[in-house]
Design goal:
The complex is a heterodimer of chains A (about 270) and B (about 300). Chain A has 11 helices and no strands. In chain B, helix 4 packs antiparallel against helix 11, helix 6 packs across helix 8 and helix 9 packs antiparallel against helix 10. The radius of gyration of chain B is 26 Å and the shape is globular. A two-stranded antiparallel sheet of chain B has the order 1-2. The chains are: A mainly alpha (about 270), B mainly alpha (about 300). At the A-B interface, helix 1, helix 3, helix 4, helix 5 and helix 6 of A face helix 1, helix 4, helix 5, helix 6 and helix 7 of B.
Chain lengths: ~270, ~300
């Protein structure tokens, strides 16, 4: 749109962003509050972070969540990328309607349904619930998000490079690795990031599919939150927000520098 | 020879690319729903797993026949006879419908505003809208407890401004649920709306203006209809998951009336009644089937539109 932004436009965007960020900002600020009471500001303090470091249960849950997220995000990225390729490059194949249905449905499916149904599957095939069942559940949920992201990138790019490589005798697999993969790498990275943060975040599906010894961080936080607000929870939330913010900034920098390098390469400039 | 090898490699490669995700989803997404359907026709039992019947394959045909003869409609009878469940469904639909409407009203000016800012600002603003979505859902809901609880920040602020004399109970009310839902789902509404508004051809509005159409009228006649796909996507992306929402009503809402996600949770975790929990899930899925299919059509059209 060319016509400039009116005052109304600016105000509505500013108010919207304030609404989105104010609660998070308050939470971060109060994690440094020396007072235990929310309404009383007792000066800056790192007390709650110190207590957190001594809380073995929380640290263990964080470690479990991190491992679940790393493994499931990686598996989801592989499966999701394959699905995106199949959906964009295979044209009509048998069972395509069912396949794309299964890809898009998990995106909006209420989590209680997905969680319950996966649990019933694990019980029926007699798998002990725990770490790996949560990994499987998160892979299933997040691979569809990866597919959507990679798919929109695959649709948007120029296929002539691939065709050129094939014409010059490169086998399909080699063409994929040397031409296609580098072109869709930013989308794959973004998909992995999203899968990782969705897995780190999930409470409902993990609650259904977890077992003894595999309490993830959200399950741990949830059981604490139900008992009321605690400054320690503010502290742990702040750490999680910081991790996600840093990861997002780093990944956007990587994507940007990647894009710049590609542009430079296309123009024949030194990088 | 070389060519033929290439063909064979392509055939196998192609098959794996499709089959790996296909099988994964068939086993871990589709098959579980069949199980939910089956268990919703079972009876509760003091056993492991806590339902009957279980197919006894060892007994052969006889075992399968006795399995089918033991299936019952008990869970569905309970769902339709106990008003608790009906109210739960209606309440979830009501909250989801009202929230979606409010989200449209709040989200539209934000998306429209972003689409009108100078080009170089837009990516940054879009990231600013998405960023909260990357932080934990649980954290975002929890952040509101800090604000809304009885000795929380909102009451503190309002008392200091002498708007209220004594603390108001914001938490455990419908207001708190609506605030939590709208806060959590706002990015889902803004992004698709922005995507469709940004793609809009500005020359259409210029043409309307040249022909003497006032701005408010061209907004109604051009901008709004052009943004309808985005609005539909945003509404479905919000409405469907909100109906089954568990975390928000559980942490922010009161205990008198539950949303259906909470009812399912209670049946499963507290009452350990797996057949009724499954029947609730099946009925919920039946209610949401039309919106889900509609959403899938929309996704297919936007992502695969070129080829169909």
């Amino acid at each position: 749109m060319k016509r400039g932004a009116s005052l109304f436009n600016i105000v509505s965007v500013a108010l919207g962003l304030a609404f989105l960020y104010l609660p998070i900002a308050i939470l971060v600020i109060y994690s440094f509050n020396a007072s235990r009471l929310v309404t009383v500001w007792g000066g800056w303090s790192l007390e709650w972070y110190r207590q957190l470091l001594r809380d073995g249960a929380v640290l263990q849950a964080a470690w479990i969540s991190l491992r679940v997220a790393l493994i499931s995000a990686t598996a989801a990225t592989v499966l999701g990328t394959l699905a995106a390729i199949a959906l964009t490059r295979y044209g009509r194949f048998r069972g395509r309607a069912l396949f794309s249905g299964m890809i898009y449905a998990p995106l909006v499916m209420p989590e209680v349904i997905t969680g319950l149904s996966l649990l019933l599957l694990f019980v029926a095939i007699n798998i002990d619930r725990g770490f790996w069942t949560v990994v499987i559940a998160h892979t299933t949920l997040t691979m569809c998000f990866v597919t959507i992201i990679v798919q929109s990138r695959l649709i948007g790019f120029d296929r002539s490079l691939e065709e050129a490589a094939m014409d010059l005798g490169a086998p399909p697999f080699k063409t994929f690795v040397t031409i296609t993969l580098p072109l869709i790498a930013p989308a794959i990275a973004a998909g992995w990031m999203l899968a990782f943060s969705l897995s780190l975040d999930d409470l409902v599906i993990a609650s259904f599919t977890t077992g003894p010894g595999a309490t993830t961080l959200p399950i741990r936080i949830y059981s604490e939150v139900r008992l009321g607000v605690k400054p320690e929870i503010n502290a742990i939330c702040t750490i999680m927000i910081a991790v996600v913010a840093i990861a997002t900034i780093v990944s956007s920098l990587i994507t940007k520098s990647g894009a710049r390098r590609r542009e430079a390469a296309e123009l024949g400039l030194p990088v | 020879m070389k060519n033929r090898n290439g063909k064979a490699e392509q055939g196998w490669g192609r098959r794996i690319v499709l089959l790996a995700p296909y099988l994964w989803l068939a086993v871990f997404f589709l098959a579980p729903f069949v199980l939910v359907l089956k268990i919703s026709f079972s009876q509760t039992a003091l056993a492991q797993p806590p339902y009957l019947p279980v197919i006894d394959f060892a007994a052969g045909w006889e075992g399968i026949r006795s399995f089918f003869s033991q299936l019952t409609l008990d869970s569905y009878r309970l769902l339709s006879s106990d008003l608790l469940y009906l109210f739960s469904y209606l309440r979830s639909l009501e909250i989801a419908a009202i929230s979606t409407l409010v989200l449209l009203l709040i989200g539209y000016p934000i998306a429209y505003g972003i689409a009108r800012t100078p080009q170089e600002w837009r990516p940054l603003l879009v990231i600013a809208v998405v960023l909260p979505f990357w932080t934990s859902f649980l954290i975002r809901v929890y952040a509101w407890i800090n604000i809304l609880q009885r000795d929380g920040l909102l009451n503190g602020l309002l008392t200091r401004l002498h708007i209220i004399d004594s603390p108001v109970g914001w938490l455990s009310t419908d207001t708190a649920i609506y605030i939590g839902v709208i806060y959590s789902y706002l990015p889902f509404m803004v992004l698709p709306l922005y995507a469709s508004l940004e793609k809009m051809d500005e020359s259409l509005l210029e043409a309307a203006a040249d022909l003497g159409c006032p701005r408010w009228k061209s907004f109604w006649l051009v901008t709004v209809p052009m943004s309808l796909p985005g609005a539909a996507a945003g509404a479905l992306l919000s409405f469907i998951p909100i109906v089954g929402e568990f975390v928000i009503p559980d942490l922010l809402g009161g205990s008198e009336t539950q949303m259906i996600g909470q009812t399912l949770w209670t049946e499963f975790f507290s009452n350990r009644d797996w057949p009724v929990a499954s029947a609730i899930a099946v009925a919920l899925l039946a209610i949401l089937l039309v919106p889900i299919l509609f959403y899938e059509r929309l996704q297919q059209r936007s992502l695969e539109g070129g080829r169909q």
